[in-house]
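ok here's Acyl-CoA dehydrogenase, short-chain specific:
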Amino acid sequence: MDSTDPESLRLLTNSVRTAMTESSAAGSAKLDAALANLGWRDMLDEIPQLAIPLVFGLLGETGAHAPVLNDVVLRAAGRPSGHTVPLPFAGNAWVIWARSDQDTSAVDGELPIHRVAPADPLPGVGLAAGRRALGWWLVGTSRAMMALARQHALDRVQFGRPIAAFQAVRHRLAEAFVAIEGAEATLRATTNQTDQLACLLAKAAAGQAALTTARHCQQVLAGIGFTEEHQLHRHIKRSLLLDGLLGSSRELTREAGAVLHASGFAPRLADL
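and the structure:
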């Protein structure tokens, strides 16, 4: 596929979105197979700069899930994809994202994620590529939460006006929007997925943006935002879990500070 052709990109985006919306209710394994049939692993080899933002961003926006993070980490490390690999989690824990639909006791019970014994550290390039991919997933999830809160603000009427007219609601949505746009800009500046510091910072920014967005959107949705009757709770749980995977935003911020302190200078990560 010519990644510079807008029509080809539109068709590819529609195909991936359709696969996610049709397969997500059937489970992770079915979507994994559907993405493989669409040539996900070939795209990961040939056009990773397009494939990763597209697939992981849509996973966030649609609320679907698939074990494709395994493929990103394995391919970046020069190992065959289609398998699983132990992944570090916040708090010095380790998990594995199964390529099946086994039950899990994780924060998000929909995801086939299971705790495992501590494993050898991931290769730096694999860890960096995985963090960048998760950053796009977190941004997509943040946009989904933002869309839900925005629609609620337009539909919910109080004192004869949509609550979108109230300054406090606008401020919350504006702060969430700025956080999301900043995280995406950081990810787009990370053109080299082997740049470990840049990918670390991008994932930290995306995780913090998702947590900020979750907090503000839950307040905009008020009481309904705290219940399982609304879709917001699924995205909030997904944000919490994805933030912790391969290092939480808090842990990564501390790690970045330690790296900069040890080196004695801050490298230029993007040309402005």
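+1. Residues 44 and 216 are 34 Å apart (CA to CA).
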